[in-house]
Each structure stands twice: as C-alpha cells, then as structure tokens.
Amino acid sequence: MLTDIEIAQRAKLLPIREIGEKIGIKEEELIFYGKYKAKISLSVLDRLKDKPNAKMVLVTAMTPTPYGEGKTTISIGLTQAFWKLNKKSIVALREPSLGPVFGIKGGATGGGYSQVVPMEDINLHFTGDFHAVNSAHNLLSAMIDAHVHHGNSLNIDTREILWPRAIDMNDRSLRKIIVGLGGKTNGPTREDGFVITPASEVMAILGLSKDYKDLKERLGNILIGFKRTGEPVFARDLKAEGAMAAILRDALLPNLVQTLENTPAIIHTGPFGNIAHGTCSLLSILLSLKLSEIAVVEAGFGSDLGAEKFLNIVCQLGNFSPDAVVIVASMRGMKHHGGVGKKDLTNENIEAVIKGFENVKAHIENIRDNFGIPPIVAVNVFPYDTENEKKKLKELLENENVRYAFCEAWAKGGEGTIELAEKVISAFNEPKNYKPLYKIDMPLKEKIEIIAKKVYGADGVDYSADANKMLKKIEEIGLKNSFICMAKTQASISDNPKLLGRPKGFKIKIDEVRIKSGANFVVPLCGEIMEMPGLPKEPAALRVDLTDDGIIKGLF
C-alpha cells in the first residue's frame, strides 16, 4: 500500500494557471510561486462583488482522537465528489503548522486519494505566510523591548507586558523564559515566553482582515501591555503597525493549489481550533463563495471548538452562514470515547460504539439545536470497521433522524464521497435557522457562560481570582464588546481531557483570561491549556528524511 506522500508524489498536477481558469480566475489575477502554487489578487473580490454567494458547507467533527478523524481528508474528498456531480466546488483549508507536522499528527494535507498538492511544499514552507507572521509578531516583540531599553517614554510596566514571542515549532522549553540576561546592553531583564505561530494574535488578525486597511487597523489595536499607571498600551502607541503590515502584505493574499483530482483548493492562514479561532482566512472563504457553486470550509477539531468559533465569530464578521454542516465521525473515534484503549481500537466492540455514539450525538445536537443548521454525519470508514459495527451505527444514526453517509475518501477520492455529496445537496433544500449564540455587546461572563452551558453541556463556570481581575480590567478599558474565543482541550467536550464521551455534571474552570484586541477576542483559558505545545517522545520528525536526489520522505 502506498503512503500518502508516495501517492502525492505520483500525482499528475495541472499548471496552477489551468486550475484558476476552471473557476474563472484570470491569469493576471494570479501571482505565481512556481508552476503549481499561486496567490490570488484581492482584485478578484472587487470584480465579483455583485455575484451571488455560493452554497457553503462547513466540515467539523466529533471530539477527535489524538490522530484526528479525517476531517481534512473528507473535506477534500467532498469537493472532488461535487466536481464529479458537475458542481463547481472549492475547498478552503488552513495552512499546516510545522509544529504538528513534526509532532504527533504529521502532515495536514489530507490523506490517500483525497489530498491537496504539492503536499511537501504545503506542509513545509508553502508560500512563506507563516514566516511572515513570525516576522511581524517578533518585530513587535523587539520594538517593545527596544522602547523600554531606550528610555521607556510610554512608561510601560515590564511586569505587565502581555505580548510574547512566536515560533512555528512545538518546543516546551520556550513556554517560560527570561530575556535580557547579560547586563544592561542586552535590554531589560524580564520574564517572557513563546507561543506557537498558529496561536499568535497576528495569525488571527491575518485570518480575519478583509483588506490592507483592516489589517493595519487591527495590528495597531493589539494590546501589548499596561503602563505603570494602569493604562493600556497598544501597538499603535509604538507606531509598529505600519512595518508589521508591510511584512504581511503578500501574506494577506490567499493561496491557490489543487487536489489530487485537479480541483481547486484555497489554503490560507493557520490558527489552531483549540487555542485560536480555527478556520482558514475570511478572504479565502469570501473568494470561495464568489468563485464556486459550493464552498467547502473546514473548521478545527470538534464542533465545540472550530465550528463554534466559526459560527459565532467568523460568520458574524463575514456576514454569511453555512447551508449545511458535515460532522466527521469514525468507528475508531466512537470506540475511543466508549472507553477502548489504543491497542484495541481495531477490534470489534459494539458496546463501545453505542457508548461512544453519545459524543457524536452531542455534536449533532450542537449544530442542529444550538445553531439551527442541518447536520450530515460523514462516517470515515477504516479497513478494520466491521459490518456488525456499521449496522449498529446506521441504527443509531437513523434513530437521531439525521442524514449520514459512509465515506471512503482516503481509498477512493471523490468517488468514495459521492453519497455524502448527494446528502449535502439534499440538505440545501432543508430550511435553516442560523443564529449566533450571543450578541457581541452582551457582558463578557454572560457570553462565556452561554458557550459553556449550551455547547459544552457544563453546569456553570468557575473563575480564578486572576481571571476575574482580567475580565474586570477588560471592561474598564472599554474592550468588553469582543468575541469570545475559548481556549480549551480538544480531547473532550469539557475542559478535562480525561472526560470522554458526553460528560455531565461538571463546571468549566477558567484559570486565566487574555485579551487579543487586534483580533477583537477575549480568550478564556480553560483548564490546563497551553499556547506552546511540546514534541512527544517519538515525534513525526523521526520519520522525515531527504534522499540524495532531493526527494522528501516520511511526511505521512
């Protein structure tokens, strides 16, 4: 059996100009990065501003195992299937982060015969967007310390600097550091730390900006810390936003690539779903809606994370909403949530499927009841799924009166996802009653508690003294009209990664609250959540290699 990278390296790619032609992009509207990658000019949106939007499908999932449930693979398979049904479709995905690529998860470009290509380029450096985010982020870090070093005319309290540094790598040693060691010439000595690039506020800003003016304004609105007198200090006070925006000029443009079946894919920005908002850029979605008949958009992790943030934040900013939501589930995932250990996940276990289905049911109810959008369950089929398990799962799904399809996107590409595509198209005819769960002008705690109770099923929220202090400060400085971007574990609907299935009788614990005012987020940190992951004992990096003739191996 061929590995994902071997399948990708055998693919026959079309020149990216031809992919653009399929969806009506003119050659002069593309900025080429070699033969198979291009950035899309924002002039396309202006040209098509009067064209009606396409239908939109949001792809989310049940609460995932550590290995993911195949959301990206299903998303790509689905867009390929739409083309087989003579529907122009674009899949809009996030860019992979080097941290997870070399960490536990490996590559993030789909799998089998449902991949985006060139796979190695996308997984590693792509068009340099992540490097631009790193550079803009760390420029602001450098300007903060330089300002303090050269007299500190803004009277910044170095104990109250909120802005960390960023690097696109899983490196636990950088979570908490001391900078400025070695004497006065090396800048102020203070506590600092790194976040992984997908958790950077600059990444969120890049993903939510509609144009260069919006980008620059948001960068200027970044809260970097407080003065000794308690007043807020913003990036604009350091006059940093102009240079940061200049670094990000090309990074704001979405990237066009293709699937293995030569259908278009737009891949842009990469905020994580657990510690950021978890979807591709607003611009990539707007382009997909203007250039296709059906836009397929993936959201990170389960519907309690990426989908919740998409539906509460991104939809309000973009003035759009999905016409259907696909929830990706797997027998493996259900058995995991039914209490089965890793080594036994490939063995038949009907009772565990029944027990673990409670998790799937929670996600169905979240989409259908909380947000008023018709869900379709996509069962990602694995070779070791048994007929008895499939029969029982069909029974469980039919009892929920929900559309579903068994998918073989990995093994068969678009052909293996046609039933799902047909079910999605049928769902377009069903009435939807989308509405966000909260209004942005509600009190902060009310917004947080709505998410905790309605989406997570919590009994309530407990706040630490530090969290309460920060929430009060946010209100005092006039930033309470912010979206809530919860940071919590992806391994459970609750804030405790050990509570599998559908937890009940728990409260969400918020230990810390951060303000990301450029993105217009308030970020409550639930439980033990970190913005800088670490590498596992046996990272995926151990499998990656380069041959003597320059061929990359081991990226799954």
UniProtKB/TrEMBL annotation:
The keyword Transcription regulation does not apply. The gene is fhs. The keyword Glycosyltransferase does not apply. It catalyses: (6S)-5,6,7,8-tetrahydrofolate + formate + ATP = (6R)-10-formyltetrahydrofolate + ADP + phosphate. This is Formate--tetrahydrofolate ligase. GO terms for biological process: tetrahydrofolate interconversion. Pathway: One-carbon metabolism; tetrahydrofolate interconversion. Its EC number is 6.3.4.3. Belongs to the formate--tetrahydrofolate ligase family. Keywords: ATP-binding, Ligase, Nucleotide-binding, One-carbon metabolism. Gene3D superfamilies: Domain 2, N(10)-formyltetrahydrofolate synthetase, Formyltetrahydrofolate synthetase, domain 3, P-loop containing nucleotide triphosphate hydrolases. Pfam families: FTHFS (PF01268). It comes from candidate division WOR-3 bacterium. One of its GO terms (molecular function) is ATP binding. ATP binds at residues 65-72.
